Amino acid sequence: MATTTVHLLRHGEVHNPDRVLYGRIPGYRLSERGQAMARRVAEHLSTAGRDVVGVVASPLQRAQETAAPVAGAFGLELATDDRLVEAGNHFEGTTIGSNPGQLAHPRYWRYLWNPVRPSWGEAYADQVTRMRAAVDDARRAYAGHEVVLVSHQLPVWMARRSFEGRSLAHDPRRRECALASLTSLRFDDDRFVGLHYTEPAAALLAGADPVPGA
């Protein structure tokens, strides 16, 4: 029996002084604190003697920059998987994340009719489909070892709820997926047997930018 761990790593804090809900917009880099978070995760994994033999990241800059120190710590080449990308969002480019009162404007109402799907962006079920496919491919490619997949808050949270057999509909304020956190999925062969959540950069979270869409 091959025991494999797939670590879902959310990227670190992003440099976002205008507090834009940046979604898939290119060019959003890690802040200095975010870079420190990425280094902290790399140190956490390497000093614990983890058997990491693969690092794969979303194509977005903030995920690539978070993954780089982890790959470097284990002497690995960083791979990219488009399926790990941030969720699509019709509010991308706005400041609604930090000023939700804007949703009262009629121009946004057409996106708010179904919060369960959700109607304002990529369906939760579609995120689960692509994230689970990425996890399954990584599990097979690195069977018997550990692999780190660097993604974004909502796709990671959707994957977790799916593996736990929970409803995909949820309160965004109750997501357990902090910046630079690890949601570690454990498999015996192809059977999911449990998960463990950790925050290696917890000491750096105080005061971190809470704007969603990351």
UniProtKB/TrEMBL annotation:
Matches recorded under InterPro entries: His_Pase_superF_clade-1 (IPR013078), His_PPase_superfam (IPR029033), PGM_Phosphatase (IPR050275)
Q: Which domain of life is it from?
A: Bacteria
The protein's matches in Pfam families, at most eight in alphabetical order, are given as:
His_Phos_1
The protein's name: Histidine phosphatase family protein
